Amino acid sequence: MVGKKTPIRAWRVAPAGRALALAMAVAVALVGDGLPPARAQQGGLPVIRDTEIENLLRDYAAPILKVAGLAKQHVRIVILNDRAFNAFVMDGRHIFINVGALFDAKTPNEVIGIFAHETGHLAGGHLMRLREELARAQTASIVAMLAGIGAAVAGARSGSGGNIGVPAIMAPQSMIQHSLLAYVRTQEDQADHAGVKFLTETHQSAKGMLDLFKRLTNESLFNSRYIDPYLQSHPMPPERVAALEVLAKASPYFDRKDPPELQLRHDMMRAKLSGFLDRPDTVYRRYPLSDHSLPARYARAIAAFRYGNAPEAIAQIDSLIQTQPNDPYFYELKGQVLLEGGHPADAIAPLRRAVTLAHGAPLIDIMLGQALIATNTAKNAEEAVPLLRAALTREPEAPEAYAQLAMAYGRKGDLAQADLAAAQAALNRGDIKTARQLAARAKTRLPVGSPAWVQADDIVSVKAPAPPRQ
Ligand SMILES: [Zn+2]
Asked: How far apart are CA 470 and CA 23, in angstroms?
């Protein structure tokens, strides 16, 4: 977890931004505004990257995706740093969930219920059909508009005034929007059905999903000024919740509780999010000093780090490590505190331990690479290069990692590879001009036709992407 200003690895992921542009078009047509966070329109999503949380959410989703027949599609869970309650899909490869939903969900089962419902949308191919439906609606609205113009012309000719053309255009469009909304509601019912089926097949309860939906509809009744974006994209009329209740209670697993160890991981996730994202007074209100539980201690240790008290943070993390000596994320956090506090040499040992315990966590590998490079020795730079390269094969969108790799090559004196890595970093940032300049310079230093030269050549010929649709 790197970045002083951005808590938890928060960076902008270009592919998510592109997918969003498409969803924006759909959402605008359906509900007028508001489905994805407004910031997304400015060219990127506030994505949170964190190994511990991503692993937990993957464990929540994996059994559901498997019974849905989507195990091989490599569906990724993307966590958005937005406090509004929301979760949605916009292509076949990603399920988006806001931290607001994670804060709100008190049990693993509630988040699993959200994933079951969203997986219902994925398995049903709803997005594709929605797009087709939308295309049809657009065609219909053009036809309606032409008919309206025709009516206006006809009206003008018959001498009854030209204005009737306007309502003739408006009425069919609102009818089309109405039929689209009805279509969306059908998809919601289907996703609920599929979701409950997936939960039952994995011997899990749909109670969390039901509780959550009830809570959301009740909140929207009492708070009309603010409607969760989730309710906008997932219309929840009372009959839908009633139907879900019948379905959920018919399952033999309705009263099944989450295993305690999973509940603890869930509580640790919420504690971590609070520690990183809440102000210290909020953290201490949620997790008062009288609370000696592991999550409370975790949240307070992170808050101490975030608000400049590194020695206090280290003391608290060491005490957490004493309680649970095999938790990779305590070592990761300790490494982060030391690295960002300007002690990269001291960060190396805890980060190595975190890497070993985490069994293949590219984000932690990248942080270890960063610590090695920050020690400013050729030997450590030598070690960082293969570490970062391996991490980048699994996390090719991590712009910090390419920047770190460029630095490592620089320390080693390999200027051609340093230029190439810096070009890739620029490309990931979306800075095509710089990427092309650096790649062109790398080409002059590389043997013509070598794999690295070909990579550089590819970057030189990259075209600027079309601006995202709004
Ligand atoms: Zn839905």
From this structure: 9
